Batch of 3 targets.
Target 1
Amino acid sequence: MSEYDVRPLERDTWDGFAGLAERHNGVFGGCWCTWFHTMSAEKERTYEGNRSLKQRLVDEGRAHAALVYDGDETVAWCEYGSPEELPNIYHRKQYEAELDILPDYRITCIFVDKRYRRQHLSDVALQGALDLIAGAGGGVVEGYPHDTGGKKKAVLYNGTRTLFERAGFEYVRSKGMGNCVMRRTVP
């Protein structure tokens, strides 16, 4: 997989991120990977509103992702950030009721261009995020992947338990129906 390059999401790479999102209708119907940044009452709920929000968060240094490039084109990403940056996780009430430690970072969204799927780009994106987290000082990292039991599922916004296991994460507990909490420490 050495033909791919990983770069952080920032002002200089915004156009690459935006190009990937635009090729896929803003991703998941115009989310622009903003769902986890804001709570329901704060959501714009429009394609342009979400695009504007994401760009503002990137400009302010409050949105992080590992972008995977094939040449000059962004073909995948993995969103990560602190719990303060990404407060809106699915099954949050259950998660908070069973919380043992608050992580330093969360992995909340992994997306791969439809032309590049089934080529392990999720692995590249996730490892890219872990490398960027290591470069920022590391810490406890959680992911909330789908625990599919090996069955195919149409929408996997955060990858699978198997993906996270390959990246060195350990299973902590279930979360909601079909998701789980995975954790690892990044030095």
Target 2
Amino acid sequence: MKILLDPGHGCNTPGKRSPDGRFLEYRFNRDIASAVAKQLTFSGYDATLLVTEEYDISLRARVERVNTWCRQLGRRNVCLVSIHANAAGNGKQWMNARGWCCYTSRGQTAGDRLATCLYQTAELYLPGHKIRKDYSDGDPDFESDFTILSRTLCAAALTESLFYDNPEDLRFLESYTGRQAIIDLHVKGIINYVSHI
């Protein structure tokens, strides 16, 4: 199984930072994705960063990179996790929204099982934190037409790891304990998914 880790956004993406400017989402996404890839590789899994560039890569290009792997290996032999952190506002003021969540494309897809595995590990590694869920279709993930989910051929999920425009969530995201928890939940969730295919 080829595991693709997509760090969202880039150094040239406007906004995407905490209201005080100290937290840059693109940097966080790359740090987490790199650490997840490293741990998975160390554990014997075939994990690759989809984007190694610091600047933003268009969604069209990201989708093509994923689908190239799918065409080479077969879509059932590839999975994608796009890693993000969330924001509720326009970046100019602190907000009240909190929590972790995961998205898949609309309808019942292979991504739903991947997302469920990530939800299960989020519950374990984020005790005391809100886990945001939408059971309207019978599973916990939110559904969206995000291009990275709807246009890719393989099982795909997008995680939103807490809110960087909430002071409490941000403190956790900036702490060593918080970052390690985010890394671990991704690693263990992906392993659980791959192990039960």
Target 3
Amino acid sequence: MKLTSKGRYAVMALADLANFNKTGPVPLRDISIRQGISLFYLEQIFLKLKKHNIVQSTRGSGGGYVLFKNADDLKLSEIFSAVDEKVKTINCKRESKKGCNGKASKCITHNLWDELELHINTFFNQKKLSDLVSKKDTQIR
């Protein structure tokens, strides 16, 4: 399965934003420090998130980002889509007659990986950003 740091960092940054934007816009620098993500990388991610109306920005002192949508309405799959992240477990296209191994038929385990991909994408489509924010981290003692 391929899920790059871009998708993971987008979700982390938006969860941070949802936690801290209750008092106003959150500067990317603050998210960068709290989450340990490069500010330059966050700027690239937030440009895409802004383009897809997931966040909006405010300029000036006291500026930063706020969520465009409520965290209860924002699916993790929407975040992945906004940053061009695709969760794939197979290399071939589902509708292709040619297999992922370049041969005329699909590999023997193709259906297994295809089914896993459906489960993963269904999971991300059902999870909302608020699911991450409302849960408190618990430690095993």
